[in-house]
Write a structure and sequence with these properties.
The complex is a heterodimer of chains A (472) and B (203).
Chain A (H helix, E strand, L loop, with lengths): L6 H9 E3 L6 E4 L2 E4 L5 H10 L9 E4 L17 H17 L3 E2 L9 H7 L8 E4 L13 E4 L2 H10 L1 E4 L3 E8 L8 H12 L7 E6 L1 H4 L3 H9 L8 E4 L3 H7 L8 H11 L12 E6 L6 E3 L7 E3 L13 H14 L14 E4 L7 H11 L9 E4 L4 H9 L2 H8 L2 E2 L20 E4 L14 E4 L2 H10 L13
Parallel strand pairs in A: 3-4, 3-6, 4-5, 6-7, 9-10, 9-12, 10-11, 15-16, 15-18, 16-17, 18-19
Antiparallel strand pairs in A: 1-2, 2-8, 13-14
Helix pairs in contact in A: 2-5, 6-8, 12-14, 12-15
Chain B lengths: L5 E9 L6 H4 L19 H4 L22 E4 L11 H9 L3 E4 L4 H8 L4 E4 L2 H13 L4 E5 L4 E3 L5 E3 L4 H9 L3 H6 L2 H9 L11
Parallel strand pairs in B: 1-2, 2-3, 3-4
Antiparallel strand pairs in B: 1-5, 5-6, 6-7
The chains are: A alpha/beta (472), B alpha/beta (203).
Chain lengths: 472, 203
């Protein structure tokens, strides 16, 4: 019998085109997703070298980072440099034969939301995109990772990447998540536990009862934030939840090919006895709703805790980082995080803007009003998510509560479009990065789950979602 | 690609851990479609005050570090976004090598694709370089990729690891895509063997 292998090893082995002596493996890429920000220089490189896109049929593009989220601004992008970048993608897709889900198409959305919902993301494939949150797609048991523009050009030209084999890390989540604790809180809990470079050089496989119990949406949130722990990729083994999600989706296998695919996908989970380079165990029962207090996703506490005292950190590096973060965030050590007021709330991003996320936020918002001191917006992850939410009348719930209901895109997760924080504004955000200036120069970001963000919008400060008064 | 063999240059100490690529180049500068000209935007929010004037407290604005071409920083340098604009900005500003105890994976790859050398040294070695750069005006080091070492003129010597292929790639300034295309027959053969369900179903 052959040596037991992990999910990662099976996908890796299946995609090695060749392993020239003394060189990294040449890895085949099954799916390449492209967006407007990290691709123009790659297409230009092809042009200069007289190269073509090898597999336009395995390449799909959309516009998400730059696009305005106000309906009236969608047809003509007012920012001339953003418009130029979107137009560059249109021209590149036309010239190189790459399908584009443009701003007005029914398939448009954040690249990491539309891949799965179109059935492009499938178990066992390799998937890349010029975007670090490509790790999201690992939720399907795919090997999915972010790349830079030079590698985008390399994949366009060759459909391959030269890759050093990463190490493997199993994150084993024991027990089940308590009520009110979501995949987002789990992700933040893991990062808080292993730190923002705890998984550098590794591919994470998330396993355990709590992970199995997650919906595909939850698994995507979890895998999405793998990069925030430094991981090359995050993965969850495919199971019936995965197959049920994919069946019937537009680009998913059909008929006999579906049965053949599922039979193959069932062989992907890590074999009993397969060895990981490292294993980290997390106790799900010990987790609580999370709020970040600093300028790195690892600077996180539970909603019942106080802003930490930098002097209590063990190393000088951590002490100085914490001091700097508190100064930037305008917070005092010892302040209960629930007493910290917010003026902005952003519900969106590739981390938390799928239908399940919007349902969770709407359930909190229903029958309540957004605080008069808060501007809150909901930005669906894709046009399809927006439509589905509107069919369930979630838009009405949000609007009645005083949230703005926007068109899909990356929006205030990184503020490349007009949706940005003003200096010193404090935002409860369902996105993935609380870096300095991430949502706008000198803006202050606290990462939370969708339910926690909605509750903060209404209360005007952070609240423990476990004691929320639901009015549904 | 620009080759890297040996470089001697002034050291700028950036004593911070987890410097993310949003700091290296903020998002408002990612909308350009060119590959050059990003140096003016490097560390923009740290380099400039709200009124657009240089912030005198930021290390790269100190006259003594003018013309620095070797950046020394804390662990997990380059974390976050995959934007290759980060190494483009560092390189366009004039940096040829970055020395830190660790780098984020995507950032390190992006650097080597552009001939900007990420050098991993131990915590004490990095601490020593940070100290030397802040104590001695005009502190220079030599980064020698052939010998895999960083040295100065007063006895500092540290060896670093880099895999053989990456080293050869940088030393010779190879064309990555051209190299892969030498394996075109292997790629074609691989593609013939793919299962149909591994490709998107036609609709």
């Amino acid at each position: 019998m052959s040596r037991p292998r992990t999910l990662f090893e099976k996908i890796w082995d299946d995609h090695v085109v060749c392993q020239p002596a003394g060189e990294p493996a040449l890895l085949y890429i099954d799916l390449h997703l492209v967006h407007e920000v990290t691709s123009p220089q790659a297409f230009e490189g092809l042009r200069l070298a007289g190269r073509r896109v090898r597999r336009p049929d395995l390449t799909f593009a959309t516009v998400d980072h730059n696009v305005p989220t106000l309906a009236a601004e969608r047809s003509i992008i007012r920012d001339p440099i953003a418009a130029q970048q979107v137009n560059a993608l249109r021209r590149n897709c036309r010239d190189f034969g790459v399908p584009l889900f443009d701003i007005d198409s029914a398939e448009q959305g954040i690249v990491h939301v539309i891949g799965p919902e179109l059935g492009l993301t499938r178990p066992g494939i390799t998937l890349v995109c010029g975007d670090s949150h490509t790790s999201t797609h690992g939720a399907f048991g795919a090997l999915a990772f972010g790349i830079g523009t030079s590698e985008v050009e390399h994949v366009l030209a060759t459909q391959c990447l030269r890759q050093q084999r990463p190490k493997t890390l199993q994150v084993l989540v024991r027990g089940s998540l308590p009520n009110g604790v979501t995949a987002k809180d789990l992700a933040l809990g893991i990062i808080g536990s292993i730190s923002t470079d705890g998984a550098t050089g590794h591919v994470i496989e998330y396993a355990g009862e709590a992970v199995r119990a997650l919906s595909m949406e939850g698994r995507m949130t979890l895998c999405n934030m793998s990069i925030e722990a430094g991981a090359r990729a995050g993965m969850v083994a495919p199971d019936e939840t995965t197959f049920a999600y994919l069946r019937g989706r537009r680009f998913a296998p059909k008929g006999a090919a579906w049965n053949e695919a599922v039979a193959c996908w069932k062989t992907l989970p890590s074999d009993p006895g397969a060895q990981f380079d490292r294993v980290v165990e997390i106790d799900a029962a010990a987790l609580a709703p999370a709020v970040t207090w600093g300028t790195s996703p690892g600077m996180v506490i539970s909603v019942t805790e106080r802003v930490p005292d930098p002097q209590r950190f063990p190393s000088e590096v951590e002490r100085s980082a914490a001091l700097r973060a508190l100064e930037y965030m305008g917070l005092r050590p010892g302040t209960p995080i629930q007493e910290v007021p917010v003026n902005r709330v952003f519900i969106g991003s590739c981390t938390n803007a799928r239908l399940e996320d919007l349902r969770a936020a709407a359930r909190v918002a229903k029958g309540h009003k957004v605080s008069s001191k808060v501007i809150a917006m909901v930005v669906p992850g894709s046009h399809a998510v927006k439509q589905a939410a509107e069919q369930e009348k979630l838009d009405q719930v949000f609007r009645e509560a005083g949230f703005e209901w926007r068109e899909s895109g990356c929006s205030m997760c990184l503020g490349m479009n007009p949706d940005i924080l003003q200096p010193l504004e404090r935002c409860a955000s369902t996105s993935n990065r609380n870096f300095e200036g991430r949502q706008g120069t000198r803006g202050r970001t606290h990462l939370v789950s969708p339910a926690m963000a909605a509750a903060a919008a209404i209360a005007g400060h952070f609240v423990d979602i476990r004691s929320w008064e639901y009015r549904d | 690609m620009q080759a890297f063999q040996l470089h001697t240059g002034r050291v700028a100490p950036l004593n911070r851990a987890n410097v993310d690529t949003d700091q290296i180049i903020p998002k408002q500068f990612l909308k350009r479609i060119e590959r050059s000209g990003y140096g003016q935007f490097l560390f923009y929010d740290w380099r400039y005050l709200a009124d657009g004037k240089p912030d005198p407290s930021f290390i790269l604005n100190h006259p003594r570090y003018a013309g620095a071409s070797v950046l020394v920083a804390g662990r997990n340098f380059g974390c976050g976004s995959s934007r290759e604009h980060a190494p483009w900005a560092l390189q366009d500003y004039g940096f040829r090598a970055i020395i830190a105890p660790s780098f984020a994976d995507i950032f390190a790859t992006n650097c080597t694709k552009n001939g900007l050398l990420p050098v991993v040294l131990s915590d004490p070695e990095v601490a020593k370089l940070l100290l030397n750069a802040s104590q001695f005006e005009g502190y220079f080091v030599t980064v020698d990729l052939e010998k895999r070492e960083v040295r100065d003129q007063s006895g500092f010597l540290a060896h670093f690891e880099i895999d053989d292929f990456k080293r050869k790639f940088l030393l010779e300034g190879l064309d990555d895509i051209g190299l892969t295309l030498q394996h075109e027959p292997d790629i074609t053969a691989y593609e013939r063997g793919r299962k149909t369900f591994a490709t998107p179903a036609s609709t």
